[in-house]
Amino acid sequence: MILTIYKIRLLQLFRLLTPRVLIGILIVLILFLYAELMVGSIVHTFLAQSQNTYISLIFIGLLILSTHVSRTDKHFLEKIFKNPYSIYLSEYLLLSLPFFIIWLINYNLIGLGGLMLIAFLIPLIRLNLNIRKIGSISMLLLNPFTTNLNSKLKVSLPFISPISFEWISGIRRNLLILTPTYLFLLAFSFKPYVAVLGLIFLSILISGFYFYGESREFVESFANSPKEFILKKILTNFRQLLIVFTPILLISLIFQPSTWYYLIGSLLVSLLIQVYAVLYKYGLFEENTNLNRNKIIYLLFALSIVIPGFIFIPIIIGIRSYKKALKNLNQYFYD
Amino acid sequence: MIKIINLKVNYDEQNVLDGLCLDISDNTIHGFVGLNGSGKTTLLNTIHGQMKKLQGSIKYKDEDIKRNDIAYLETINYFYPRITGKEYLDIFKTQNPNFDINKWNTLFELPLNKLIEDYSTGMKKKLALMGLICLNREVLILDEPFNGVDLETVQKIKTLLLKLKSIKTIIITSHILESLLPICDSISYLNNGKIQFTKNRNNFDEIENEIFAMHQDNLNKTIQDLIGVIGQ
């Protein structure tokens, strides 16, 4: 039974090993070796010190626990095998093997005992957590722009045109972040520069709406050519953005008329961020696919729009994305 | 008329469609049946232009068929997250402003103000079909439209297709022959990327016999052997 599972695991691993993944593994290994050689055997030294045993055990325990509660193959294993406990146990023992070896060499009995306890006890836990929810909570803490955390709230959005489906979906998905941000901006736009910075922040949040690939029907019914598609997408986005920004702009202009040129600058940067988001999305476009995995890199590039001297980065990436977008969209407008 | 002329399609250097020829008359319903992997979906994808032809052509009204001629319901339907059924249909309505969503919904009875995530498989199928009807294209392609749909809806879709064929040409696939017999004017049997035969309504009773003649002998023997193995 265990051998069959390990055979499947090896095949899964083998299928994962594309050249790209291999290069990634190689880079991580080189960096690790570099750190080991330059700074000394960090991990080894850390684990060898007995005062670090408890911290290490907590870390390993949390790692295995999070793996156990979020693994998606439990239902399959429980259906096929009468008692999958031994499979979980053997996998967790294998996961903790590097720590096991180090503590065995250092004759750290507390560490060894703790590891055994973790590996034997965690498979008994019957809790299942949705990995997407765990991901969403951690992403919300790490990076609020990438959150998908939301309840099943369905707010009505009559001020948004149906062709801006990204906005409808995006607002509902990010309601927890957008509502307080927008209310804060409305309430404090009378203060100098709040609107100036707030509009850029809001624009970055909104650009996150564009990270889900729509279905073929949506693409085909939106325009008649790739160029028209991109242009129409950008203009639709601009229109929605201006509708959302107008109240903030008005409040700021009434109370801080002298900062009008900063507001125009902020608006231009916000629009540029939207252009960049649209180009980036369709440069990576895949139908019916969550493109969130590209969000962190996008954010780094998008933020360089506001960093003086770095504007060339999004411009270069934007031009490249535009060419790729035309190529990607061409398959939908072949007539 | 839709004319498929010597159509060849390769996928990963494997021949998926091998020299297909077929004429489908206007205002008819043409069915495709075949085993899993026989090339049904590939054929539909190729007609729609999603897959490239290695050889051959597909004509509609004596010209190369265009995507704008076709509304295509795929086997699995994807929907954008966190939008309602109404919002989904509104996107299609931009192509056909005269389409009356509420009136059409008296037939499908969908909770259009609910998020699509909360729909059942059958409801999603109905919503996707309604979107395609809204596009009002001349050729309607339906890949396994009865999958996951309840009996009442199957009947509704069948009645609708029979009415729609007076203004459209419909191509439909199914794994289940019985679901196509009452609505199709002609049915082709696909096997290993080739059309083994095409039958008109008058000869539908021959279809089952011919398919079984191809597979039944082997099938009987294989099942007999397998049952023998279990019994040991």
Describe the protein.
- The complex is a heterodimer of chains A (335) and B (232).
- Helix content of chain A is 71%, strand content 0%.
- In chain A, helix 4 (53-70) runs parallel beside helix 8 and helix 12 (194-207) packs antiparallel against helix 14.
- Chain A is built from 17 helices and no strands.
- Chain A is elongated.
- The longest helix of chain A has 30 residues, at 226-255.
- Residues 135-151 of chain A have low confidence and may be disordered.
- By secondary structure, chain B is α/β, with parallel strands linked by helices.
- Chain B has one domain (2-230): 3-Layer(aba) Sandwich (Rossmann fold), CATH 3.40.50.
- In chain B, the strands form 2 sheets. In chain B, strands 6-7-8-3-9-10 form a 6-stranded mixed sheet, sandwiched between helices. A 4-stranded antiparallel sheet of chain B has the order 2-1-4-5, covered by helices on one side.
- The relative contact order of chain B is 0.17.
- At the A-B interface, helix 10 and helix 13 of A face helix 2 and helix 4 of B.
Features of the shown structure:
heterodimer; A: 335 residues; mainly alpha; 17 helices; B: 232 residues; alpha/beta; Rossmann fold; 4-stranded antiparallel sheet; 7 helices; globular
Task: Please tell me how large the radius of gyration of chain B is.
Answer: 19 Å
Q: What share of the residues of chain B lie within helices? A: 25-40%
Q: What is the terminal separation of chain B in angstroms?
A: 57 Å
Give the largest interface pair and sizes. A-B, 26 and 27 residues
Ends apart, CA distance between termini of chain A? 54 Å
Overall shape of chain B: it is globular
Overall pLDDT confidence of chain A: 83
CATH architecture of chain B: 3-Layer(aba) Sandwich
Order of helices and strands of chain B: EEEHEEEHHHEHEHEEH
